[in-house]
Amino acid sequence: MPHAVTLQEVADAAGVSVATASRALSGKNRVAAATIAKVRAVAAELGYRVDPIARALREGSTRIVGMIVPVIGNPYFAQLVDAVEHELHRAGFELLLADSHGELAEESRRLTVFGDRKVDGIVIVPSDRQRSAGALRAVGAEIPLVQIDRSAGVSLADYVGVDNEIGLGLALEHVQERGARSLVYVGADDVTSSGVERWNAFDRTVDRETVAVGEPFRGDFSLATGAAAADALVARGRLPDAVIAASDLIALGLIGRLREHGVEVPRDLLVTGFDGTELSQVLAPTLTTVVQPIEAVAADAIGFLLSRVAGSTAPVRSSRVAPTLLVGGSTTR
Amino acid sequence: MPHAVTLQEVADAAGVSVATASRALSGKNRVAAATIAKVRAVAAELGYRVDPIARALREGSTRIVGMIVPVIGNPYFAQLVDAVEHELHRAGFELLLADSHGELAEESRRLTVFGDRKVDGIVIVPSDRQRSAGALRAVGAEIPLVQIDRSAGVSLADYVGVDNEIGLGLALEHVQERGARSLVYVGADDVTSSGVERWNAFDRTVDRETVAVGEPFRGDFSLATGAAAADALVARGRLPDAVIAASDLIALGLIGRLREHGVEVPRDLLVTGFDGTELSQVLAPTLTTVVQPIEAVAADAIGFLLSRVAGSTAPVRSSRVAPTLLVGGSTTR
DNA sequence: GTCAATAGTGCAATCGATTACGCAAAGCTT
DNA sequence: AAGCTTTGCGTAATCGATTGCACTATTGAC
What we know:
2 copies of one chain form a homodimer. Chain A has helices at residues 7-14, 18-26, 33-46, 52-59, 75-90, 104-116, 133-140, 164-177, 193-205, 223-236, 248-260, 294-309; strands at residues 64-69, 94-99, 121-124, 145-148, 158-162, 182-188, 212-213, 217-219, 242-245, 270-275, 288-291, 318-321, 324-326.
């Protein structure tokens, strides 16, 4: 094994002390121009690269950011991880990933490990709107932390997410324009902030004077919830004109199961999704869905995070990114 | 900030030296039983936890494993990451994740970073069957490395993946049983090992005496390839009895786009997938697909990797896990 | 009761980089 | 030319844990 080059070796080869070599490379203190050139040349020739571990020990900074998502298997989160990773790499940070599987205990354990490992910052999609707060507050007091997509309290730490009110509004407006006079909401329960917000947005925005609103169906954000909702709708007998789903997975699960019951979308029923995952745009019918600008959300979140990492003590910020509506086949007959 | 407890503080509180404290906690050298008890009690009370960075500097081991996947957005890889992460956590390792986006340069850059960061091991899905080998060999000489799902040469480093020959065989046999007399293969190009292996398996296994084999369509493993293949098939005019797709995403993209052309699966055409992603089992029609035992693959791979981390110098191993066939609606009329 | 073996512990080096401090040489002021 | 400032660089401490070596105290053998 070609034994990694140390700063000491560079210093020796350049005929200076390690201290000078370090300064020459960082350029942070006064060093003669000639010395800088010499040291840099030698370092390049020897292929010197700083040992991130030694630096981390000394500096207390690892240039690693930890991220916790509830389910990496959900394509929306996969895309989010991808976007976050991209932003971090641009800024020279690595991504330490953990999956909480939606479990509070696991989430809190991972947070502790991140603390021990001295990550420079944490990006988290809190698993529980209320009960995640404790662990977040504790860790957030020590390490810059940004909540993304979901929140456990916007006063707790910086937050970036989509504006669910706008999103639901777009979906509602659209199906009403397409003539839907009876609606059912299929979404997630009150455990997550997105679950609450989307339901509230629907509940407050829908105009009960002009449309009939059926009993909502609420589970989680998965395909399975969509499928279960389909069964329930069919069992109820009369189908609504449209279903507003709180995620693309729910919508896809719903459409798929409805088809098994002989119910075709959009022929018998309109459906809208939420997220704008790639997936929703290739299957048939393509989904009319509220598109989250994932890249923008990730960029904002990492922006917040890195400004904190750089020492900003600005008051807690909360950013809501506006989604757009993408009209597909699921509401077009 | 509650200032992390150091070993020095534990030692002071217990009235021993740091050396003894360290030995008492690790239990690796002879220390009086009473001292061990005392130190452990004090450590627990103070909430001491070793600083992984200091330990890493001293030991040269980080208890971090790096993983590189081509596209985290592909649900199959998302599930693979999930399974790998699970196995690693069980063994007390953290996961540093990077996405190569299928680019060789990016892949090699991430490998270098992993080396610098002194990860204890690397799990990689090589992006290129041939051209990934160089970087893999270089890094693999220094750090335990296991290839998973795809390979850049099974003699290069340990490898664990599905047995594509068996998988394709299952799919072929199944559609023939269902009466298909003409087939088209839709898969990935020769850049990846899976692309090559699945095509070869198809090509060698299919019995050209009893079935007509149409011109294959090859792209990558994405939805888009499936959609493009659908366009091509329709453009050709006569549809085959069945399409054997090399991934679930391809199959789903294909089915979706075919439907837009008015071609229904399985009514007009049978389709089989490959991977057994959760997704493929909820949409309608559910997919007949070759199910990869992802957990088993991940467990084997991490088993190989950790035995190397522990110092094994056994000859390079290669493990093929047998897939099974899950029959769904896409081949059932 | 002497000597060797061994258990238990502390001192100090080590991993590799960063940086406070101090010293010598050079430059500047009056 | 004496005094002061500035420049450039080396010495050594530091981050926190692990461990080789040395030293003392205890135990056992004969």
